């Protein structure tokens, strides 16, 4: 059968409907997205029922979101999109620290902490560890006054925002490097934990036989004027989930030894061109 109006003509009509004079970048992004979406529908010969299942799934993802729960970030993470966005936005040619996913549990305005101070409230359990090092430029100079925002799960494997019984801002803090670019974060050894599976992303993981585990890690967001903000983690090299991270965020260069109670890690920032 020959279609009077072909899928290619249909795609052209949709692409032409975006007016590039209004916002050229937006038009570029949307034309690319539409082109890939149309290819996906053609390649899979998507049925009406499958299309509706997809619509219902995305609706459920949106309905699961609230002030503390960001199911769309979780979906992006588990589809490998968040990690890819980091990769295409960070130039790794000059030895800068490798980035990884932000994740859905970052909270701005964490309490300011002095170097050596702990992000773990007294009595929160777990084994103590100090992560220390230097923040420096890719060119080598230590960066004084760099800000390190740090967050991780409690020893129970939950973020403060996931459980009302955990004090707000537990295991979160904001540090600044000293005149020599040095910092020292006191915390508890991070533990492996599962990403939230009580929403549609969890349904997708189960339906496709996938794991929900993340290997133990501490999150860092490191910033300094004149440099690109680095979003990364340091991972526990002994975690059994390093090769099966649910969000594909592990990089060999980010693994450290947490077993001795003191570990060192330097963060290297990329200058803004
Ligand atoms: C996290 O490490 O906090 C995280 C990252 C992606 C999805 C869920 C959690
Ligand atoms: Fe995390």
Describe the fold and architecture:
The protein has six helices and eleven strands. The protein has 273 residues and is an alpha/beta fold. The protein has a domain at 92-269: Sandwich (Protocatechuate 3,4-Dioxygenase, subunit A), CATH 2.60.130. The protein has a five-stranded mixed beta sheet, with no helix packed on it. Strands 1, 4, 10 and 11 form a four-stranded mixed beta sheet that branches. The mean pLDDT is 94. The structure holds benzoic acid and fe (iii) ion.
Give a quick summary of the entry.
The chain has 273 residues and is α/β, with parallel strands linked by helices. Helix content is 27%, strand content 19%. α1 (7-16) packs antiparallel against α2.
Notable traits:
273 residues, alpha/beta, 5-stranded mixed β-sheet, 4-stranded mixed β-sheet, 6 helices, 27% helix, binds benzoic acid, binds fe (iii) ion
**N-end to C-end Cα span:** 55 Å
Biggest sheet overview: 5 strands, mixed
Attached small molecules: benzoic acid, fe (iii) ion
Percentage beta strand: 15-25%
What structural category arises from helix and sheet content? Answer: alpha/beta
> Which sequence of SSEs, written as H and E, runs from N to C?
HHHHHEEEEEHEEEEEE
* CATH architecture term of the domain at 92-269: Sandwich
CATH topology of the domain at 92-269: Protocatechuate 3,4-Dioxygenase, subunit A
Q: What is the overall silhouette?
A: globular
Rg for CA atoms: 22 Å
User: What is the residue-mean pLDDT, rounded to a whole number?
Assistant: 94
Determine the fraction of residues in helical runs and give it as a percent range: 25-40%
Low-confidence stretches: none
The CATH homologous superfamily of the domain at 92-269 is termed: Aromatic compound dioxygenase
Q: Given this structure, which CATH class of the domain at 92-269 is correct?
A: Mainly Beta
